[in-house]
Amino acid sequence: MTMSWMIKMTMIPRRVWAISAFRSRAPSSSPCPVADVVVADPDLLSLIPPLPPKNVDKPSLLQPRVVVFDGVCHLCHSGVKWVISVDKYRKIKFCCLQSKAAEPYLEYCGVTREEVLRRFVFVEGPGSCYQASTAALQVISYLPLPYSALSAFLIIPKPLRDSVYDYVAKHRYDWFGKENQCIVMKEQELLDRFIDREEIIGSK
């Protein structure tokens, strides 16, 4: 037995469209005793907005090859200045740990500010974050020759490299000093390479 009826569906605000729906009951011997078929005007279907895609990650706004470092440390600042001076292709960018712009990078790498104060972070790209001596050598690998050749020190076991790094980092304030605010504010010609430059300038 076949029945047909009209079902009114509101597809667009203030407009009502009619879609004819038919329900047919198959013979009892059929493996699928009931089948529902909906027939609609193609022109009406084109007005139905598509469903949002599932399991699609939001695009990341983080920039690649960003160094997040202690901006009040004289030793760290000197290292940044050196990288800027030899990075003629401008591959590396920087961000002061003390700025708000650093927060999404810390969250992405799963580290706290306290951890980055001890070991700076290099966010190379999606899924690639490095700290301490490995971060330093990965940054160097992006510099032109002959400097990039120093990245060969990655062959040294990480615990040994990091032990030297941690010792220097622990005493850097005593040996080289620190400031109360990001040192780059005193050398604004470098700000072009900082992703947080607007925040730094606005804090003056």
Please write out the topology.
Blueprint: E1 2-12, E2 15-25, E3 34-38, H1 42-45, E4 66-69, H2 74-86, E5 93-96, H3 103-109, H4 113-118, E6 121-125, E7 128-131, H5 132-141, H6 158-176, H7 197-202
Parallel strand pairs: 4-5
Antiparallel strand pairs: 1-2, 2-3, 4-6, 6-7
Keywords: Signal
Signal peptide: 1-18
Protein name: Thiol-disulfide oxidoreductase DCC
Summarize the structure.
This is Thiol-disulfide oxidoreductase DCC. With 204 residues, the chain is α+β, with helices and mostly antiparallel strands.
Architecture overview:
It comes from Stephania japonica. One of its GO terms (molecular function) is protein-disulfide reductase activity. The chain is an alpha+beta fold. It has two domains: 2-45, no CATH class; 66-202, no CATH class. Helices cover 32% and strands 22% of the residues. It has seven helices and seven strands, in the order E-E-E-H-E-H-E-H-H-E-E-H-H-H. The protein has helices at residues 42-45, 74-86, 103-109, 113-118, 132-141, 158-176, 197-202; strands at 2-12, 15-25, 34-38, 66-69, 93-96, 121-125, 128-131. It has a four-stranded mixed β-sheet, sandwiched between helices. A three-stranded antiparallel β-sheet has the order 1-2-3, with no helix packed on it. Strand 1 and strand 2 (15-25) form a beta hairpin. Residues 1-40 and 51-59 have low confidence and may be disordered.
Described by strand count, sense and barrel closure, the largest sheet is: 4 strands, mixed
Order of helices and strands: EEEHEHEHHEEHHH
Strand order of the largest sheet: 5-4-6-7
Poorly predicted regions? 1-40, 51-59
Helix content: 25-40%
The fraction of residues assigned to DSSP E strands is 15-25%
The helix/strand class is alpha+beta
> What is the number of strand segments?
7
First-residue to last-residue Cα separation: 82 Å
Number of domains: 2
- The tally of helices reads 7
Mean pLDDT: 78
GO molecular function, one term: protein-disulfide reductase activity
Pfam families: DCC1-like
Keywords: Signal
InterPro entries: DCC1-like, DCC_oxidoreductase
